[in-house]
Amino acid sequence: MSQYADPIVRTSAGAVRGVRDDFGEFYRAIPYAAAPIGARRFTSPAPHPGWSGVRDGTRPSPTAPQPVRDFGRLDMAPYFGPGWVRGEEYLTVDVRTPAADGGSRPVMVFVHGGGFVTGSNRAALYDGSAFARDGIVLVTVNYRLGVPGFLDLKGAPANRGMLDVLAALGWVRATIAAFGGDPDNVTIFGQSAGATLVGALLATPEANGLFRRAIIQSGSGTGAFTPEQAQRVTSTVAAALGVEPTAEAFAAIPDERFLEILPALAGLDLRTSTATDPLAGLSPFSLVLPVQPADGLAAGPARDVDLLIGTNTEEGHLYLVPQGDLESSTEADVLAIAARVHADPTAAITAHRAAEPNATPGRLRSAVLGEALFGAGTARMAQAHAQISGGRTHVYSFGYRSTALNGQLGAAHTVELPFVFDIADKPWLHGDTGLLGPDPAPAGLATRTHTAWVTFAGTGNPGWSAYDPHRPAAHVLGS
């Protein structure tokens, strides 16, 4: 039982009760849109009708329908959270605030990753206590995933998961002052698929005025599918379900069935005459856009938005080390992944070999994968933003090597998250199969990383020089 009296905040939709603790106040499962049930799974998010009385905001939200993800020997439960927790009303936000007291604090809105098919704001990694401790109002967002969120269907708006995030930002704009936040000082940040969504919002006209700053952690400014690629996925899904590829036909199909047919999409070849597969076969879902976000920034709020963007130095290790594929990789495996993601695979491999002459096939495979998934699209986004925003771009490279899995995991995809959220000392992140491995996190790295994010949210400067597109360099976090 809490030693504090439960706080209540009144919003335009109704009152919500939270909990008060040593870090401030916590309000959970607040709906920002109507429940996406039945045919509404394939429409734009609708306004929530509101509620009478006081809503219980002390318990976590249901989550979007999603499959179980297995990462071999690595415990990724802190990243993926509890999986599918059933319930209709999952288009919700959690709010962590120092106090719902009429203050005007910087607001940070976090969009989770998970390959556009998994994840939720219930994941343990997204504990916002340190942000509230340091004067930030943190909002974490759930959005539609998989078929309801991202499958391109006739009769349905595209990129419905991104439309959900836009709706959540609209909720923040209208409501966050009641929770002690400044609606004119909002930073949206995301990781992996969430970071790719953030990048797309920078190029989205409807996002104008909804945020002042953005942080892209291991996302891609070139991670969207072309319409042709999206239709290949749609045709495969419709065939697996035995229905026409329309929103009307899909509306009657239960969510369980959408998850059952996901194995039929595994490894789907999305290469076309004009495009390689931006997700390297790791996910059959992404944004569907006529041009990549990095090439369309002028259409959205990007030029007026401060941007912090970066990647980890061994992103590809997450997809090879836990499965035992780093050591077993062959030259043929390197060529196969290069052919999937490059128009000229031989030239790509040659460039990676030149950068790391003594690399094993496994390290080359990881480098090709990491560059294709995150590195190249991040560099293109940083360049594009720097050229239109006038010194508002800051770039980082996160290099701390996790000692998980016999010291092999390294600076893999997701490893920066415990440092951003300043929870790198949590026991459940350690041990040989924990994300950070058996060794303690280096003293001060979490403080430095987290402080950079907080400072950026407050001022637009994380503590190092702006990126120069003519002399590109990244600020290194971790060795």
From TrEMBL:
Q: What class of enzyme is it?
A: hydrolase
Keyword vocabulary terms for this entry: Hydrolase
Q: What residue stretches are annotated with the Carboxylesterase type B domain?
A: 6-463
Instruction: Locate the region Disordered.
Output: 46-69
- The superkingdom listed in its UniProt entry is Bacteria
Is Ribosomal protein set as a keyword in this record?
Answer: no
List the EC numbers from the record: 3.1.1.-
Alphabetized InterPro entries for the sequence: AB_hydrolase_fold, CarbesteraseB, Carboxylesterase_B_AS, Lipase_GDXG_HIS_AS, Type-B_Carboxylest/Lipase
| Coiled-coil portions | none
Family indicated by similarity: Belongs to the 'GDXG' lipolytic enzyme family. Belongs to the type-B carboxylesterase/lipase family.
Q: What is this protein called?
A: Carboxylic ester hydrolase
